[in-house]
Fold this sequence. Notes:
Blueprint: H1 3-16, E1 23-28, H2 33-45, E2 49-54, H3 67-75, E3 78-81, H4 90-102, E4 106-109, H5 115-122, H6 126-140, E5 146-149, E6 155-158, E7 166-168, E8 178-180, E9 185-188, E10 196-204, E11 207-216, E12 219-224, H7 226-235, E13 244-250, H8 261-264, E14 271-276, E15 289-294, E16 298-301, E17 304-308, E18 311-312
Parallel strand pairs: 1-2, 1-3, 3-4, 4-8
Antiparallel strand pairs: 5-6, 5-16, 6-10, 7-9, 9-13, 10-11, 10-15, 11-12, 13-14, 14-15, 16-17, 17-18
Amino acid sequence: MNKLYQAARKAVYECLKLKKGENLLLVTDKKKMQITEAIAHWAREKNGQVTTYLMTETLRPITEPTDIFKSMIRKADATMYMLDARVEEKPFRGFMVSKGVQRNGRIIMMPGITRSMMERLVNIDYKAMNTLTRKVIRKLKDCEEVHVSNSLGTDITFSVKGRKWENDNGRINKPGMHGNLPAGECYTCPVESSFTGRLVISLIDDKKGRGTMIFEKGKMVDYKGRGVRAIVDTIGRDPSGYIIGEFGIGTNKGAKICRNMLEAEKAFGTVHFAIGDSYGLGKNKSKWHFDGLVEKATLTAGRKQIIRNGKFLVK
């Protein structure tokens, strides 16, 4: 068995825990067919009913689902999304998550997944990663003063008191669950009114290049950088797209800082923030959700340092 099939087996058997007779919907494109075939192989071994939705390049970017696709997502017990990541398609991805979860389906989001990412980051020791991630959550849960800084100029303070934390540990095996593969982060939404300061990011939603985002009481009020500009141009005048929606910490030891945000935000010792939808963890609802990566961060919860210059102090 090659490494890709080993990873696909772990995704179907351990992460998704597909059951006999369950309907699995695979949303894919031509570039992902090797991955799709490996996943479909193991789904068939589990006696699942597999449907493949192949998105042609001539129909992209796709922003609205067709009526047939709406029916497919409603009937799926589990869905795996593997299209290349494109900012214009955020509303389509948001539709999939909201509708799938509403009807107690399971959604695995894998935007921009590559064979290398499958082999390096999906076929891993999930138990060890989960143990570390839970420790990080315990250090931060209900903290009234979280501070994030780095040498590039990031300096922001906020509260997470009363906010629920999610552990993206690769377990997407129960009705109504959604998450990423590769997995490896914990995340919540800052208390919006407390979120004030400056973020200097090295990557925003697969757009390379440094950018700056200035926040006042949870709202982005100024920015610099071509990557952030591209995101602002996409959001336009929708005010919901400029509200803080997420604070996350990467805990996958194999993940690297790269152009693909799906992997970069899982990189060990990085932190990331998103504007737009809070996935029910905060007050903001939006069809947008854009992640920005902060490298070599120092993260302090109260008086305790959790990360120093991109290195975990939690063991």
